[in-house]
Specification:
The protein has 131 residues and is mainly β. It contains 2 helices and 10 strands. It starts with 5 loop residues before the first helix and ends with a strand.
């Protein structure tokens, strides 16, 4: 049996470090780049991704922005929550408003995940997606 390449081993260790212990995973349930057969002009439309876990939903709209991507996050049911936007090297902290909405400008392309925290529930971590 051949040894695992060091690059693969390091990537696996990084993935383990990026997990949130005790978090519910919100699986990606819809991505128009995968699920929408009628998507004729992907560059012309916003990309709306839907994540779901245990009756809670996270809707992410990705739009082109002036400097990077514009992300609009919507929590259902609506609530004020702390939200951590993460990529593989950095993270940024934000809060949703009363309607469960958050907008972030200037997000770089690449792998991202959100961790949603409020006082009443365990954290929710979205599946990692490439933008």
């Amino acid at each position: 049996m051949e040894p695992v390449p060091e690059l693969v081993r390091q990537a696996a260790l990084r993935a383990f470090d990026l997990r949130v212990p005790g978090a519910k995973i919100a699986e990606l349930v819809f991505d128009p780049l995968i699920d929408d057969e009628d998507l004729a002009e992907p560059a012309q439309r916003d990309r709306v991704l839907r994540f779901s876990t245990d009756g809670q939903r996270v809707v992410l709209t990705v739009s082109p922005g002036q400097k990077g991507l514009r992300l609009t996050l919507l929590l259902r049911p609506a609530r004020i929550a702390r939200v951590e936007l993460r990529n593989t090297t950095d993270s940024w902290l934000f809060s949703t408003d009363e309607s469960g909405r958050l907008r972030v400008e200037g997000v770089p392309s690449g792998l991202i995940s959100f961790v949603v925290r409020d006082d009443d529930e365990p954290p929710i971590q979205t599946a990692w997606v490439r933008l």
